Amino acid sequence: MIIGRLKGEVAAIGLDHVLIDVNGVGYVALAGTRLLARLQTGDAITAHIETRVTESSITLFAFATDEERAWFVRLQDVPGVAGKSALAILDGLSPADIMDAIALGDAGAFTRAKGIGKKLGERIVTELAGKAPPLGRFGKFEVAAVAGLASARPEGVTGSRAEAVSALVNLGYTQGEAARAVAAAAKNGAEEVGALVKGALKELAR
Q1: Total-model pTM
Q2: I need a labelling partner for 15 at 20 to 30 A (CA). Which of 3, 88, 168, 200 fits?
Q3: Is 192 a domain residue?
Q4: What does the pLDDT profile of the chain (206 residues) look like in tens digits?
Q5: What is the CATH number of the domain that holds 92?
Q6: What is the CATH number of the domain that holds 46?
Q7: Are residues 54 and 70 in the same domain?
Q8: H helices of the chain, where?
Q9: What's the domain range around 38?
């Protein structure tokens, strides 16, 4: 059985996990400190879940957004990045920060995460450079509410960036070129797709 989402009440909070009561059944899920800091016992919660099944155990990982869950999975495509390391990275960097660090070759950004050294940071950038950002399980990100807070636009900033990168790739630029240009445009303040594409084209024309 693969669990993809849990809707219930926060029954208890530990140092690295949360107990979610769903109609009287308690599910223990590992979670990052960023999410745990937002929770209080008794909160209503709808959390995105990544289920890991091995021969000896079933482990649940909880996330505030489907986008974070998708990056959790993508980061583990990199040799040396396991579940707890991926959680640590997502504690230190937002999905937008991760996209920028990969696009700009900023391996040092990943060393902000607990347990991520220089070599592993460089490996993450090398392994993921030029790849399209991850999508939700069914091709788009879902909305979930954590502690009563809902995201009106689940793709957030990274959704706009992904669209801008895709538009530039369709114009003939490589994934890497497009990602770097869009990251630079974003750092200059662009947020909407049109502004990101316009700013990226200026960067590419230099």
Answers
A1: 0.78
A2: 3
A3: yes
A4: 789 999 999 999 999 999 999 999 999 999 999 899 999 999 999 999 999 988 888 999 999 988 899 999 999 999 999 998 999 999 989 888 898 899 888 999 999 888 899 999 999 999 998 888 887 776 666 655 555 444 434 445 567 777 888 888 888 888 888 888 888 888 787 778 888 888 889 888 87
A5: 1.10.150.20
A6: 2.40.50.140
A7: no
A8: 33-36, 66-75, 83-92, 95-104, 118-128, 156-170, 175-187, 193-205
A9: 5-63
